[in-house]
Design a protein that fits this description.
about 75% helix; 7 helices; Ferritin; globular; mainly alpha
Length: about 170
């Protein structure tokens, strides 16, 4: 696409792609948004691994229920991680991709101890809150930069998190 962009100039010297991007109000790159997206990517990757940990290590009366729920969640979060990384790439930046980078920049921390099922669910609810805080901050920045695509992607993710948090809070109330 970059080669094509350099070949398609309008009369003012701007590329057609740049003109179309301005017309759609899409930024070519926004360092503040992509930096925060990378932080969200890191948090999401750690959250994904935490879900796998809980899936593997859940025990007790809730095993069958939570084992399946954790699997559904980590399957969905694998896709979310990919979508966030690809959005960073679309904005012209490099997503964090090493374990060291992900752990360094994540707001969510690994869970190394095996917990009771209620503690696992409570931890996930807390993590949902951290993820939502990150997402809402990025949405604000993206909208300030007229980056509706990033805001839309994150709006959808936030809606999903809100529903999952509500369901887990209802489960904790039993």
């Amino acid at each position: 696409m970059r080669i094509e962009e350099t070949m398609l100039h309008d009369t003012h010297g701007a590329t057609r792609s740049t003109y179309l991007r301005k017309k759609r109000r899409q930024p070519m790159s926004n360092a503040k948004v992509t930096e925060k997206l990378n932080g969200l990517l890191a948090s999401s990757a750690v959250f994904y691994q935490k879900l796998r940990n809980y899936h593997w290590n859940v025990k007790g009366d809730d095993f069958f229920e939570l084992h399946a729920i954790f699997e559904d969640l980590y399957t969905r979060w694998a896709e979310h991680v990919d979508i966030i990384a690809e959005r960073i790439l679309m904005l012209g930046e490099r997503p964090y991709s090493t374990l060291a980078e992900l752990l360094e920049h994540a707001s969510i921390k690994e869970d190394v101890e095996v917990k009771a099922s209620r503690d696992m669910v409570a931890s996930l609810v807390s993590d949902f809150g951290l993820l939502q805080k990150q997402i809402l901050g990025i949405i604000d920045d993206a909208e300030n930069q007229a980056d509706r695509k990033t805001a839309n992607v994150l709006d959808d993710l936030n809606d999903e998190i809100e529903k999952d948090a509500w369901m887990f809070n209802a489960w904790l109330a039993k």
